Amino acid sequence: MTTRFRGTYTVMVTAFDAEGRLDLDAQARFTDWQVREGIHGLIPLGSTGEFLSLTADERRAVAKCVIDTVAGRVPVLIGAGAESTDEVIDNVAMAEELGADGTMIIPPFYSTPTRDELIHHFGRIGEAAKTPVMIYNNPATANVDLTPDLVAELSKLPRIDYIKESTMDVTRIRDILEMSEGRMTVFGGIMGFESFVEGAEGWVAVGSNILPKALARLFTLTADEEDYHAARALYREVLPIIRLVAGHRYVSGSKAALDMLGMPMGGPRPPRLPLPESEMGEVRAALKAVGAMPEAVA
Question: Is 250 a catalytic residue?
Answer without folding.
Answer: no
